[in-house]
Amino acid sequence: MKKIIVSGFILIIAAGLAFSSAAKEKDSIKYPEPAGAATKEAGTGMAVFAGGCFWGVEGVFEQLKGVTNVVSGYSGGEASTATYGQVGSGSTGHAESIEITYDSSVMNYETLLKVFFSVAHDPTELNYQGPDVGTQYRSAIFFMNDVQKQAAEKYIKLLDDAKVYPKKIVTEVTPYKAFYAAEDYHQNFMRNNPDYPYIVYWDLPKMERLKQEFPELLKK
Fold it and tell me: What is the mean pLDDT of the chain?
């Protein structure tokens, strides 16, 4: 998505309008609460999610109370291929991902899951998100322990059983191995480039949905 240039601006607008229409439909969806008690964690918690271009996913989670840091990066592959140029080939095993650090006295893993599935991306899109195609844009949860694994699997089943989406969720639930921070220019990209065409047409609608769906979760 970073290779978009002015000559493709009309295509971005058209795609953005289509996305806006789909977003309106998504706004009417009622997302169930995760089943069971919230995961109990001591001190600082960490989560790693992949949901397409990391710019917008990072931007969403940065807004949440209790989230102390969000880093854009790569997960699922080897350290030797954790660069934007290589990951973009779609052959490294990496997915564009975010690493979320949060205060577990304020935020919990289940709430992060709900935001991930309802606002941050479309979990029914297999190996793409919006205009971005390839395994590097897949939907994935990299769980760090059995508690996170069970929470993710239970919530996916809950969403599928409730038929929240017209298609089945394709999100991978896979063991966390490592996370590699992306290049500096990718960090805080939405915050630093709010007028960038890709951000305007693909990511700002996510921010609007976040404000509409979860105002109580937002930082002041």
Answer: 89
Report how far residue 190's alpha carbon sits from residue 44's, in angstroms, rounded to the nearest whole number: 25
Give catalytic status of residue 53 as yes or no. Answer: yes
Are 214 and 111 in contact by the 8 Å Cβ rule? The answer is no
DSSP state letters, 16-74: HHHHHHHHHHHHTPPPPPPSSSPPP--SEEEEEEEESSHHHHHHHHTTBTTEEEEEEEE
User: Given pLDDT bands bounded at 50, 70 and 90, which one contains residue 27?
Assistant: low
- Distance, in Å, from the CA atom of 142 to the CA atom of 178, rounded to the nearest integer, reads 9
Catalytic residue of the set 53, 98, 119, 182: 53
Quick: pLDDT tens for 77-118. Answer: 999 999 999 999 999 999 999 999 999 999 999 999 999 999
Q: Which residues have a Cβ under 8 Å from the Cβ of 182 and sit 6 or more positions away?
A: 54, 71, 72, 73, 74, 84, 96
Q: Which domains does the chain have, with CATH numbers?
A: 6-217 (3.30.1060.10)
